[in-house]
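User: Last request for today: this protein with adenosine-5'-triphosphate, please.
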Amino acid sequence: MANVLQLRDVSVVRSGTTILDDVSWSVADGERWVILGRNGAGKSTLLQVASTQLHASSGRVDVLGETIGQSDVFELRPRIGFATSTLARRLPQNETVLNAVVTAAFAVTGRWNEDYEELDIRRARRVLAEWGLTDLADRNFGTLSDGEQKRVQIARSVMTDPELLLLDEPAASLDLGAREELIGLLGGYASSAAAPAIVMVTHHVEEIPVGFTHGLLIADGRIVSAGPLDEAITEASLESTFGLPVELSVSDGRFAARARRA
Ligand SMILES: Nc1ncnc2c1ncn2[C@@H]1O[C@H](COP(=O)(O)OP(=O)(O)OP(=O)(O)O)[C@@H](O)[C@H]1O
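Assistant: Here's the final one, the structure of the complex with adenosine-5'-triphosphate:
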């Protein structure tokens, strides 16, 4: 399978601090990756590099067959879906949910004078249905709950039919019901052969949807382990990543972890 993302010896240094340290990693078409690591480990920075929003200080980054620094990132970006709370904050609060999603077709966050095709509207309604948002299409984005807003962010990021989907902590701050609903939807999406390659950052192994195939653990900007989920996410690798003894279990494809009692 072709690589949709390839990092070779990538480092990111900001304000004199090394945030990513010699990272080599690739994501092939059809793979669904989860990235885990402590606060400040470099997870979001890695996603920003993958999204082309941040340039590596050294090393080589290839995204969707294009080498960053040698190609036009403005042509590349519409092919990448990226859902982060930072982008979500830019969505106008008084925009309807339908508009918040359909505007992704033009890579803008507010609906002004763009001439939307009936095709775009139809696609937006289909995406809203896929993410359980049909009944909220006419509500203002700012009136939605956190869980509903998270689903709108993802719906927006898949509106353009991306070839690579990047999700930064999509389940953060959700209650149990909203989290489980989102993980179920993500699992269904990830299991579809038509879905793009996916990379999702999360803090908890409990949030890994069924259907995800690979894991990457990162600590202090360096990869601790990377590969198929059951090889990359083990008690030993979690212990190295989080710095505490961990008890890990897997049931029906879902992971659970807690500190090992002495
Ligand atoms: N512009 C910057 N200048 C200096 N340091 C930065 C800059 N941006 C980020 N950092 C630092 O880089 C490190 C990695 O940040 P990053 O956001 O990638 O971590 P993360 O793993 O996503 O963390 P979290 O789980 O808390 O979201 C952090 O220590 C952060 O303070």
